[in-house]
Specification:
The chain has two domains: 176 residues, Glycogen Phosphorylase B (Rossmann fold), CATH 3.40.50.2000; 132 residues, 3-Layer(aba) Sandwich (Rossmann fold). 36% of the residues lie in helices and 16% in strands. The strands form three sheets. Strands 2-1-5-6-7-8 form a six-stranded parallel β-sheet, with helices on both faces.
């Protein structure tokens, strides 16, 4: 076993060694990967040593109902050996999949504190596919996060919802957007009748894309993204063009081609794609639910309405400058600062009990 390093107090500006265990990683095109990858890059730029254990280091199998997501096969031994040799100052478990569970088991065995993140409403995602009771699925999610010293959640609405379901140690951790990559540009990338109403993101059942594609709207509708529901939706909506962006530069061109970004999801914890649209000067139309309520708000650069068609048409009147200004307030540097603040230092900790009990959450923001 290695000897633990003595530099761990990030509040004093010292470099730290951080181990991140995640089941979502490149080349997966989703918001979770965007957040984890960007935070890792920002921390490395500051001189920290960040190591990531991800599915590309294992034999994998396709996630049931979502073949584009590879899941690690029997990762516990390799994850344990990795952490045992690495002896990090902090362990962060980003996802609730096989790798995340393996890291969790190791930390509990060793009495190491760790942090986790609630990026995705997997209980709702699983319920949509299995029809299992939502309360039962949340019980499993709560058990996974229970021993975490800091459960990072991306928005106040998610914080309050999880607190109401009995989650403890919740920490509000916002997300950011790269305003250098995503910025206003020419709108001539697509030759479609205007106005163009667009969705960009994972094409999965939980995104509620029929809630957008069934709308009676002027001009055109378009979808950009990949996912297991794509082929079925293309057959169901042959009049709607579906695209896949090749990298962030082209992705920004798609955003800029839109007149309104329509976000029909009812279950997102945040919705990073909304920030990317806003950074390009494109207003957002969405339902008044978790995610849009925190990203857009009641007076933000978009329209939230139970009538999504009405929201989409009203959003046409929002000025691009207002959208861009709003997005500039979401800094990745602030996200990295908060991440460091919420990490649980192993050197200073007396050790968590193996049963993983943890104090209750703070008062909701």
């Amino acid at each position: 076993m290695g000897t633990r390093k003595s530099f761990y107090i990030n509040c004093e500006g010292k470099n730290v060694l951080i181990a991140i265990a995640t089941d979502a990683w490149y080349p997966q095109p989703n918001g979770v990967v965007r957040v984890i990858g960007t935070v890792r890059d920002r921390l490395i730029e500051r001189g920290h040593d960040v190591r990531v254990m991800s599915p590309d280091q294992f034999v994998t199998f396709p996630c049931p109902t979502y073949a584009e997501i590879p899941l690690a096969v029997l990762p516990r031994r390799k994850v344990a050996r990795w952490l045992d040799e690495l002896q990090p100052d902090y362990v962060h478990i980003a996802t609730e999949g096989p790798i995340g569970n393996a890291a969790r088991a190791y930390c509990l065995k060793k009495g190491w504190p760790f942090s986790t993140a609630f990026h995705t409403k997997f209980p709702e995602y699983l319920q949509a596919r299995t029809k299992l009771p939502l309360d039962w699925l949340y019980k499993g999610a709560r058990k996974f996060h229970e021993p975490s010293g800091a459960v990072m959640v991306p928005a106040p609405a998610v914080y309050r919802e999880l607190e109401g379901r009995g989650f403890g140690n919740l920490k509000l951790w916002s997300h950011g957007v790269d305003t250098d990559v995503f910025q206003p540009g020419p709108k001539d990338f697509l030759d479609l009748p205007r106005p163009i109403f667009m969705f960009i993101g994972r094409v999965t059942v939980d995104k509620n894309l029929p809630g957008f594609l069934d709308l009676d709207l002027p001009g055109s509708k378009a979808v950009v993204g990949s996912g297991p529901a794509r082929e079925q939706l293309m057959k169901r909506y042959p009049e709607t063009p579906f695209f896949i962006a090749d990298g962030d530069v082209e992705l920004a061109r798609y955003y800029n081609a839109a007149d309104v970004f329509v976000f029909p999801s009812l279950t997102d914890t945040f919705g990073l794609v909304m920030l990317e649209a806003l950074a390009c000067g494109v207003p957002v139309a969405a339902f008044p639910v978790t995610g849009p309520l925190d990203v857009i708000g009641s007076e933000g650069p978009g329209v939230l309405d139970e009538d999504l068609a009405r929201a989409a048409v009203r959003a046409l009147d929002i000025a691009p400058d207002r959208c861009r200004k709003w997005a500039l307030g979401f800094s990745w540097d602030r996200v990295a600062d908060e991440f460091l603040d919420f990490l649980q230092p192993i050197n200073q900790a007396p050790g968590l009990p193996v049963d993983g009990t943890a104090p209750r959450a703070q008062a909701a923001p």
